[in-house]
Amino acid sequence: MKTLLWVEHEDGGIKDATLSSVTAAARIGEVHLLVVGYDVGAVATQAAAIAGVQKVHVADDVAYAHALAENVAPLIVQLMAGHDVFVAPATSNGKNIAPRVAALLDVMQISDILSVEEDGSFTRPIYAGNAVATVRSRDAKKVVTVRGTAFDKAAREGGSAAIETVASTGDRGVSAFVSAVIVRQERPELTSAKMIVAGGRALKDSETFAQHLFPLADKLGAAVGASRAAVDAGYVPNDYQVGQTGKIVAPEIYLAVGISGAIQHLAGMKDSKTIIAINKDADAPIFQVADIGLVGDLFQVVPELTAKL
Amino acid sequence: MKILVPVKRVIDYNVKPRVRADGSGVDLANVKMSMNPFDEIAVEEAVRLKEKGVATEVVAVSIGSAKAQEVLRTALAMGADRAILIESDAEVEPLAVAKLLAAVQAEEQAGLMILGKQAIDDDSNQTGQMLAALLDLPQATFASKLEVAADSVTVTREVDGGLETLKLDLPAIVTTDLRLNEPRYASLPNIMKAKSKPLATRAVADFGVDVTPRLETLKVTEPAKRVAGVKVADVDELVAKLKSLGVAA
Ligand SMILES: Cc1cc2nc3c(=O)[nH]c(=O)nc-3n(C[C@H](O)[C@H](O)[C@H](O)COP(=O)(O)OP(=O)(O)OC[C@H]3O[C@@H](n4cnc5c(N)ncnc54)[C@H](O)[C@@H]3O)c2cc1C
Ligand SMILES: Nc1ncnc2c1ncn2[C@@H]1O[C@H](COP(=O)(O)O)[C@@H](O)[C@H]1O
User: Fold this and answer.
1) Is A297 part of the contact surface with chain B (CB cutoff 8 Å)?
2) B104 and B84 in contact (C-beta within 8 Å)?
């Protein structure tokens, strides 16, 4: 089987989510990468160096600059004539593009796979991760998106794949990029951080959120996450949200501060190795999944903890 | 401009799903069901566009069993003008749902279709994108803001690093994220009024779409359960625990 994996890149670098997807693709078959974008020569070189990659296809065109699904999907569909399985990381771009490809190929996508089984079936979470389904596709070609936390990252070095240029399929001219507000975090990225400090509604406002959680996170070298309630209330931007509909994370340590533990939040972090919870309500559901719990008022506990670390 | 809003009947988001012991699926008997939360947001957005005079008609569509009428009535009570139920007792996969919706669009010729970004039961996150592909129309997924002009829609999307704004030619497909709006509760008078709004029932066969499942579910299991660990008494104990995990200096 030949897989074609869409490479997620940003500012000339390949994102970690792609590396986890390489591992997933390698379980399915031969790994061919597709680097699409504008001025992506350097990205293609990096892609060719990833361990386990057999071939890299590169499509370089200004029409691909913003990964618009309308422009990228036809290119992928064309390349799928020579591949069996299309793979994309389940990132916001991957989730945007892959189903468009699937429908054009007339196949049902398998979203968010957690594993590739011996018999060619896949497991995937449903109902906010409260259940895991094992599914097999009857389609001749397949389209899957990969949950990054479920697979180890392939090594960035060790491969020496051939690079092949693909002609652009051009701009469909039906959609256009207008602008972006991308927050450049100085802290580690949520989805690949070893440790996360996350805050909930209890943090009151953006100032108290920053004042309590940022110094703690910085002392621990941790990324900062949040519950939906904290994001909705404007304490932090949307890309901090962890959960069923936010980011899926699985760090070594997840420290939840003033988060109740709704199932939609747990869906995004329950695969963390060690969960620590600070909450003033001893009956908060987060304590049912926490390895270490501290019942107390965060406004006392957090400053004290930061000071003692 | 007409707006088409597909809505799905799913397990209520407050209910904790229970996996059947025989591995055949999730137990939905006697479980509270509701409109998919993202679809409520879609209906709300469409109704607001009508209230602003941008849209002229809001049509809600659901594919599901006769019970999906309940969620269509909810959409009507929120302000949709009419509803279409495509009845199917068997589960219909996103690809087939998208094909049925494309067939509905061929009849309705809506200027905008607003879907939820994902159904909270299958968590597929694909129907809107598939519909856009089948109709060869532009798409903007994960919308947190939407501005409709005469022949285009400008959409702000929630993406991994922050926010992105796209401009799409109409007709277009938009899928909703949580922060697009806060859906209204239907008032009692509106719930009463909704009972007399038109709700057409159609058969899958009317549309000539093959809905045979492409995916076979071999089994459904419960994920490994986490168990509650220990409670520490104070910050000093927590610091000690952190040290034993090798993180604190
Ligand atoms: C379709 C849908 C999708 C959703 N997706 C997500 C998602 O992706 N991510 C997500 O997080 N949520 C999601 N939610 C929302 C989720 O259901 C909860 O509403 C949300 O997670 C609650 O956030 P919270 O725990 O911060 O707030 P609350 O539930 O209000 O909890 C606040 C907690 O803080 C504690 N507290 C208060 N004061 C203090 C103090 N001084 N010291 C210590 N503790 C204190 C309280 O005891 C309480 O436990 C979704 C909901 C829906 C319907
Ligand atoms: N059976 C259905 N009937 C109507 N709309 C649906 C149905 N299934 C999915 N949708 C729409 O597609 C969106 C995404 O669903 P999914 O791709 O299954 O996660 C939902 O939020 C609905 O707007």
Assistant:
1) no
2) yes
Kindly state the helix (H) or strand (E) to which residue A12 belongs, with its residue range: none
The owner of tokens 């022949």 is: B151
Residue pairs between chains A and B whose CB atoms are closer than 8 Å: 256
Nearest ligand 1 atom to alpha carbon A227: 11
Same topology between domain A2-165 and domain A190-308: yes
Phi/psi region, residue A128 (left: phi>0; alpha: psi -120 to 50; beta: rest), is left
Contact present, B38 and B116 (Cβ < 8 Å): yes
- With contact defined as beta carbons under 8 Å apart, do A100 and A159 qualify? no
Of the candidates A205, A194, A141, A113, the one whose C-alpha atom is nearest the C-alpha of residue B214 is A141
User: Which domains, and CATH codes, for chain B?
Assistant: 2-244 (3.40.50.620)
DSSP letter string over A255-289? EEES----HHHHHHHTT-SEEEEEES-TT-GGGGT
- Please state the rounded mean pLDDT for residues A272-286: 97
At residue A237, does pLDDT exceed 80?
yes
Render B66-129 in DSSP notation, one character per residue.
Answer: GGGHHHHHHHHHHT-SEEEEEE-SS---HHHHHHHHHHHHHHH--SEEEEES--TTT----HHH
CA distances from A214 to A203, A232, A258 (A): 12, 19, 15
CATH architecture of A2-165: 3-Layer(aba) Sandwich (3.40)
Over 90: is that where the pLDDT of A177 sits? yes
Distance A228 CA to ligand 1 centre (A): 7
What's the pLDDT at B201? 98
Domain spans of chain A, in order of start: 2-165, 190-308
B74-107 pLDDT, tens digit per residue, is 999 999 999 999 999 999 999 999 999 999 999 9
A181 touches B at CB < 8 Å: yes
Q: What is the DSSP letter of A132?
A: E
**CB-CB: which of A130, A239, A270 is closest to B162?**
A239
**In the numeric block, which tokens belong to residue A163?**
């690079």
Cβ contact B7:B43 at 8 Å? yes
A195: amino acid identity, one letter: M
On whether any CB of chain A is under 8 Å from the CB of B93, the answer is yes
- What lies within 8 Å, CB to CB, of A245 at 6+ separation is A228, A264, B117, B118, B177, B178
Predicted ipTM of the assembly: 0.96
Q: What topology does CATH give the domain A190-308?
A: Rossmann fold (3.40.50)
How close A89 comes to chain B (CA, Å)?
12
Is the separation of the CB atoms in A257 and A203 below 8 Å? yes
Nearest to A198 by CA among A256, A281, A136: A256
**Residue whose pair of structure tokens reads 């999906």 in the numeric block:** B68
What is the mean predicted confidence (pLDDT) over A225-252? 95
